[in-house]
Amino acid sequence: MGESLKKIESGDRTVWITQPNEIESILNRREAAFNIAKEKLASEPGKIETAMQIAEAFGRGLFEEFIKKNSDDWTMEKWVKPVVGNIFNPMGTTATFTKITEDEAKSLIFRCQLHEDSKEPHIASIFTYGFLRGMLLSAFPEGEILMGSSMAQGAPMIEFTYKTNATDEDRLERERIKEVFMNNIKKSEE
Predict the structure, then answer these.
(1) Looking at the chain, which runs of residues are DSSP E strands?
(2) How far apart are the C-alpha atoms of 70 and 68, rounded to whole Å?
(3) Number of other residues whose CB lies within 10 A of the CB of residue 126
(4) What's the rounded Cα separation, in Å, for the pair 65 and 60?
(5) 143 by DSSP, 3-state: which?
(6) pLDDT single digits (tens) 58-113
(7) What spatial distance separates the first Cα and last Cα of the chain, rounded to whole Å?
(8) Most exposed residue of 126, 161, 163, 188, measured as fewest CB within 10 angstroms of its CB?
(9) Cα 135 from Cα 141, distance rounded (Å)
């Protein structure tokens, strides 16, 4: 595994750390996908669907490359472990899973580097929801991800519930999320 240097500046101090090139690759791809989604929203105001599709495609790609090889017979626990180790940790995302059963997990994400770096919390939240949804549906096509709170709405963390088998009501979540964030983006532009 190759390594590269990463510069971290804090106030008047600068620290250089080494990081595996794979981590740099994930971060660069996340940044590229996020920027494409952001540009689509800027060029087509109100078209959250396109941004959501870009984020979900990014999540499916992450699943294929970094998670799929870990199991052929998925349970929620088998899905969570590689997501945390192979995706969350390299991306600088810190999460606590408060519940993991065979068919459901709940997490509180209290540090999300994308939110910190982007300065556009609504778009970062849409993107985070979308790429997590893409990873989840890659393992559990009948599943869904529910969002209970968002950093973009002033919460100190993002609350997600991941389900392997969604109810009819759960399947409406994606549309609810799009509507909530569309309204939030409109309000922030006023």
Answers:
(1) 3-10, 13-20, 94-100, 104-111, 144-149, 158-163
(2) 5
(3) 29
(4) 9
(5) coil
(6) 999 999 999 999 888 999 999 999 998 889 888 888 888 888 999 999 998 877 77
(7) 48
(8) 188
(9) 10
Domain edges within the chain:
23-189
What does the CA dihedral 114, 151, 49, 82 come to, rounded to 10 degrees? 60
User: What CA–CA distance (Å, rounded) separates 152 from 125?
Assistant: 6
| Phi, psi angle pair for 157, to nearest 5° | -155, 170
Q: Which residue has the tokens 């595996």?
A: 20
- 0.85 cut: is pTM over it? no
- Token pair for 72: 């052929």
Homologous superfamily (CATH) of 23-189 is Trafficking protein particle complex subunit 3 (3.30.1380.20)
What is the CB neighbour count within 10 angstroms for residue 100?
17
Q: Which amino acid is at 152?
A: A
How far apart (Å, rounded) are the C-alpha atoms in residues 19 and 43? 35
Q: Quick count: other Cβ atoms within 10 Å of Cβ 157? A: 18
Under 8 Å between Cβ of 52 and 174: yes
What is the DSSP code (8-state) at residue 66? I
